[in-house]
Amino acid sequence: MELAQIKKEIENTLARLENQRQILADTEFAIDNFDPSEYYDESQHIDFLNETYGTIEVCGMTMDSGTILYSQDYPAFREDMNNYIDSMDLTSIEDYNDLINEMNEQRDIYEDLEQDLEVLYDDEYEIESELK
Fold this sequence. Notes:
132 residues
């Protein structure tokens, strides 16, 4: 390979590396800002509370605990729901796992480009040394 050709390859690889770095940064940003509340709603939390705490009997009437909390103390319901969401295992959400897998793939591509660049720099050095 000629020196001019190697320099062009280095330039192209640097551009691809910078593009890949941005893709990786965007994916990491999406992971860092992943919002699990989009995957859990109030009806699911009512069901969770009903299953966890069962029914409550008041004055001979039986009611679901989640439904009572929702209708009688909505702020407490939301606080409990937010605490539950904050404690969620994100790896149980498929979209989060997809982002993690994408980030790993993007890192592999980035590392491959770095290795390619290192080889090109070595080739450039060898040719320049031979020309001296």
